[in-house]
Amino acid sequence: MNSLEYLNKIVDVKVDRKLGSKHPKHGFIYPVNYGFVPNTISGDGEELDCYILGIYDPIDNFTGKCIAVIHRLNDNDDKLIIVPENQTFTSEQIRALTDFQERFFKSEIITNLEFNKNIPELSVTNLESSLSFYKTIGFKIEYERPENKFAFISLKEFQFMLQEISEDDKWQVSPLTYPFGNGINFQLEVTNLNEIYNNLKNSNYKISFDIEENWYRQDDKLLGNKEFLVQDPDGYLLRFFEDLGEKKNEKE
Q: Is a pLDDT exceeding 80 seen at residue 137?
């Protein structure tokens, strides 16, 4: 099987380098259990390797769910991420927990992500600054291509692609000037509006209008939103709102 075919499947793993053991050649200590899928062949001609996360004792064997694949870009040896069935880890957590070994390679983390049919791609001037902003809101990095200064981020069902502007960017049909988001805002329904607002305010991001309640007519009723508007570092407008329900339009 191709390594990606293991995504979201239950996998049996034989552990040959237990948590706390030392690498026989390089000498580093394994902070997680590390093993392989028996009777498989990876790109390097050996069995397909696995990191086991969420288990905090040395083990010999494990059966768990594959939630991600670390695809090495400068090596032909993919790694499966195996966890207990009831657990999950973000791409950032996976990166941190496997950095003891993966820091020596260029890689991307591939998850069993369902892509929305409509995903805005935002051209940004500085990817690091943009990621800092979106992480403040609660977005996580699903995967990234550092060599292209590209990141795919999500917050529940919301998805954005961020691409740092380059001189040979074929998608730019004319020069961009700040604010990039002038004329459009992305409306995002959340359940923790005050928390997002306070996190942004405390991090000194520009709030375009503060939290307010607004009611919008739909035929003979009014739909209520508690909402605020914020600009990201490049001026893209995000309009966060909580649903206040509906009421009769008294003017009808």
A: yes
